[in-house]
Amino acid sequence: MAKILISSLGTGRKEEGSYKKAKYRLDDKVYETSFIAKAIDEHINLDKIFLIGTKKSIWDEAYIVFDGDNSEIHEELYDKKELGETTLELLKEIEKGTDFKIKPFLIDYGLNENEIWSNFEKFIEISKFIEDGDEIYLDITHSFRSLSLMSYVMTQFASSVSDKNFTVKAVYYGMYEYSYENKDGITPIVDIKILLELQDWIKAIEAIKRYGDFNALIELLEQDNSLEKQVKNTFVNLNNTINIANMSAMQQFIQTAHKKLNSIETSSNKIVKLLAPEIIKIIDELNYDKKSDFQFALAKWFFKNHNYALSYMALFEAVVTKTCELKEPNLDSSDKDVRDKIKGRVDYPYNIEFLENKDNKNENLDSLSSIRHSIVHQLDNRKDKVNQDIKKLSYFIDLFEKYFDK
Predict the structure, then answer these.
(1) Which end of the chain is more exposed for a tag (fewer CB within 10 A), N or C?
(2) Domain locations along the chain
(3) For residue range 358-367, what is the model confidence (pLDDT) as tens digits?
(4) How many whole angstroms separate alpha carbon 364 and alpha carbon 352?
């Protein structure tokens, strides 16, 4: 496991023959240096530093600050930097001079789409030098704001598409402007990793809203040791009941969770509190005492979240349960024998679409039960009708809405 800093280089400006130093403060410790990466290195004891800069970035200072001792190379780095002619070949001298602790990456300014894509590819290249278990520290203080933003975004991208499991430990920004507002001239280095974390939460919320998928949310909650156990269990249990698609268990959970909503609304986790309205909306949407109403609401919810297979299953069971409630209110609608007998007693005209053909009483191959049977048992008789069956599901839901108004 390596501790790696990815840092963007600015162009800098020399005053009286040297670059201006700053007093960087990180976790109440102060480091005076011209190079923020040096301060972070001293504080964390990094294993590797990936420096990202353009042809006019202060590569010469990087060489000196990290103990490069060849004056000719230092001078050449400065001259080339001033001319905007820095080459990757020359930058390899920085690697050698720092015992390969520093690895430089030369990127474009990002002035047009081609340069932006070129930089994109460079960041993908950077991710290839990261190994499983590595800890990444990101510094976005210097260079053009667009490049700092790309460093930030590309770290997220690399973590999403790479098959390597690494952790972003911090996203550092040196607030140099603040040094003019305090008497000691201190530049605080702040960790804005919360912005990365918010992106993860946003993706998790989007998965819930669009697909009813709580898996990403559960992963985030598992990482939060401070989160109340009751709140965490509420989300975990909801996710489990959805994933296993046990409708009776889901109804029981929804009814129980409805009584515990206060623990979500009053959670100490700020993001969970922001999530509360969305969770409450889902629970309220499915909170029905009558089983048939719950199953029908669940069918609509699965359809809205593009889970068409479970929607077909829930809708079929809802119609059977509703028929039990209408025809045999004194019998147990959850009993298998009762449900098997009741399937042929759906009221006209709904029975035509549910099970039978109006003309000859033979099975209707485009009925709700036939399509559901094909899905559940993975038959190949509808392999060419996927899009048709999704449209038909919408039709079934609208049709049987009237049946549930009885």
Answers:
(1) C
(2) 3-191, 201-286, 291-405
(3) 555 556 778 9
(4) 8
pLDDT of residue 258: 67
Query: Which residues face 254 on adjacent strands?
Result: none
CATH classification (class only), 3-191: alpha beta
H runs (alpha helix) in 135-269: 145-161, 193-211, 215-223, 229-244, 247-257, 261-265
The position carrying tokens 């999403």 is 160
Crossing angle of helices 291-304 and 386-401, in 10° steps, is 140
- Residue 147, burial from CB neighbour count under 10 angstroms (0-12, 13-18, 19+): buried
Do 49 and 103 touch, CB atoms closer than 8 A? yes
Report pTM. 0.67
Q: How far is CA 206 from the centre of its chain?
A: 9
Alpha-carbon distances of 311 from 59, 314, 345, 356, 357, rounded to whole Å: 60, 5, 22, 21, 23
For residue 373, the tally of other CB atoms under 10 A from its CB is 16
CA distance 377 to 268: 46
